Amino acid sequence: MTRDEIVAGAYEVIQSGSKSFRAASRLFDRTTRERAWLLYCWCRHCDDVCDGQTYGFAGGFRGNVAVLRGKTHRAVAGEATAELPFQALSLLLSECPIPERFLEDHLRGFALDESGWQPVTEQDLATYCYYVAGAVGCMMAILMGVPADDEETLERAADLGIAFQLSNIARDVREDLEAGRCYLPSDWMAEFGITRTTLFDPENETALVAIVKRLIDGVSIYEESARLGVEKLPFRSRLAVLSALRIYGAIGRRVGRLGSAAWDQRVTVGKMQKLAYVVPSFAEAVATGRS
């Protein structure tokens, strides 16, 4: 396919797969926006294959990480492929110097899911969040123009991804448990005398809310760390990142406010609310940079 055809295909993927990321991506300049779609296309495919989903919803075919890793390595090598996600990745890598280690780190997160892993400690959780989202933050930073050797800024980008993932984990506790996964550290659960099988028992409601509050507290900590790197980005990228930060943070904080009712239905942020977050993000983007 031509570049335009690959980009159009990637856009269709993000249209179906993520309203929040799609909304934030519209704030980028055209080149950055298209590259963000290309990266999302590969990430979405990897996630779907590992979860047996299609665009994050049930009904897909469950594959394995070894196959994904092999196809990814071939895309890195520039080998021809008929599959859109790997064409998108190959095209992206031809335009952006993204180190392969970030791709491999991202796949490590899926490998943990494949193994049925659960974090024991808070550090285990942070490491997992880096793999599945922080590494993506690093890749996004590079396609926004951050040099691949600017470790300090990339660490802040990783923190942003970790913040996003903590919000997702807080929102999806019940959904993940129903899929046979639990991302709440077993050390935390042991403090309250509960396990993944008793997590949603009525008598453990207070304990569950207290544990999830720790996740939400972590969101704020990683958000503040991430903000320290925003000034290194071009204006439109700053605007997009700060808007995404507010949108994803709002998801986590709403989960915190809802308490035990947070998992009665999936917590989302409406279109008008997302637009409302652009205004303070614009002001902050102006205040934290020069261009």
TrEMBL record:
Keywords assigned by UniProt, alphabetized: Transferase
Transmembrane regions: none
Pfam families: SQS_PSY
Signal peptide coordinates: none
PANTHER family on file: BIFUNCTIONAL LYCOPENE CYCLASE/PHYTOENE SYNTHASE
Protein name per Swiss-Prot or TrEMBL: Phytoene/squalene synthase family protein
Lineage: Bacteria, Pseudomonadati, Pseudomonadota, Alphaproteobacteria, Sphingomonadales
